[in-house]
Specification:
Number of strands: 14
Distance between the termini: 15 Å
Number of helices: 10
Radius of gyration: 19 Å
CATH topology: TIM Barrel
Strand content: 15-25%
Strand order of the largest sheet: 3-4-5-10-11-12-13-14
Structural class: alpha/beta
């Protein structure tokens, strides 16, 4: 291997110079202070510092408000304490020469009353995903959420705007709106989780309205060129999400409309599971959406070095995001360059507090 491979070529991300096209994907790691959802500066700083050779780091999902919380030990970006902690983490990353976006997150119906003083979580419609929520007392069954009022929706739009403003204060290089993986935005997109009869439900345009209202507000506090957005078009059977005949047309509409914005990137996930028997699904997401989206396209899910190089060489993506490989290989870029074998990750330490399985994976490159 060498620096000549596609993954290791530099890339101009709408004004942000990336030394390579290897992106650290956003991953929940459950290491934040559970009292106040504040990042642990020493721990988070070391974790992201170790991985600063990535072309771009996208942080773990960070809640935009208390209402957005749905997992224990996950950081937020809605309080002064959170902003100050993230600022220190970002200083560490930048001193190491890295670039980092924050992923803005609202889990919607995937939360639990235990996080909200007994109140039901908010969602587009009162439909239980029939899944599990990871609460301070362990996994619990999800509940039927509270359907969002128009006032709830307007407030949540402003929560995302404020979170983006806080991200700027904290020194992030940009933000990624987490409109994927069965969480709040995705719940609006899907007809099986959104049965509203007002301007946020029914038609494809209406079900996408919330996303574009958020985007319009977020771009008032951070330039469009510093905004990324994540989507998962062929998600099925996870967190209560079920595809139907309008699922892919909905994402086609959204991705095409995103051409009207001068975004940093659109981040797409290949299917998380086998969707070959689903007539509505798209099995090759990058290939399907490359002709539709004219800006920077990032792809993830299931890529190794060979597949990552190939998808860029074919022109179906500009950047490749790696998740689990980055957990156990902090020097992933250097390993790709030097041909060093990747280390295995320990799933038992994905979501437990402390350094073990977080900052103790050794680098094996020079």
């Amino acid at each position: 291997m060498s620096k000549d491979q596609a993954l290791l070529q530099p890339y101009n991300l709408n004004g942000l110079e990336l030394p390579n096209r290897v992106v650290m994907a956003p991953m929940t790691r459950s290491r934040a202070d559970n009292e106040g959802n504040v990042p642990m500066v020493d721990l988070h700083g070391e974790y992201y510092k170790q991985r600063a050779s990535a072309g771009l780091i996208i942080s773990e999902g960070s809640q935009v408000s208390e209402e957005a919380v749905g997992y224990i030990h996950t950081p937020g970006i809605y309080t002064d304490a959170q902003v100050e902690a993230w600022k220190k983490v970002n200083d560490i990353v930048h001193q190491e020469g890295g670039r980092i976006f924050i992923q803005l997150w609202h889990v919607g119906r995937m939360s639990h009353p235990d996080f909200h003083n007994g109140k039901k979580p908010l969602a587009p419609s009162a439909i239980n995903p029939n899944s599990k929520s990871y609460t301070p007392e362990g996994f619990k069954d999800t509940v039927t959420p509270q359907e969002m009022t128009l006032e709830d929706i307007k407030r949540t739009v402003q929560d995302f705007k404020k979170a983006a403003e806080n991200a700027v204060k904290a020194g992030f290089d940009g933000v990624e709106i987490h409109s994927s993986n069965g969480y709040l935005f995705h719940q609006f997109f899907n007809g099986t989780s959104n049965t509203r009869e007002d301007e946020y439900g029914g038609s494809i345009e209406n079900r996408a309205r919330f996303l574009f209202e958020v985007l319009e507000e977020v771009k008032k506090v951070i330039p469009e060129r510093k905004i990324g957005l994540r989507l998962n078009p062929s998600l099925n059977g996870i967190f209560g999400m079920t595809m139907d005949e309008e699922t892919i047309p909905t994402f086609d509409y959204i991705v095409n409309k995103l051409n009207d914005y001068d975004l940093a990137y659109v981040h797409l996930s290949e299917p998380f599971n086998d969707v070959s028997d689903i007539p509505y699904a798209v099995e090759n997401i990058a290939e399907h959406y490359r002709p539709i989206y004219k800006g920077t396209l990032m792809i993830n899910a299931g890529f190794d070095q060979e597949k990552g190089n190939k998808v860029i060489e074919k022109g179906n993506a500009d950047l490749v995001a790696y998740g689990k490989p980055y957990i156990s290989n902090p020097d992933l870029v250097e390993r790709f360059e030097q041909g060093v074998e990747l280390s295995d990750w320990d799933e038992d330490t994905f979501y437990v507090p402390g350094k073990k399985g977080y900052t103790d994976y050794p680098k094996k490159t020079k």
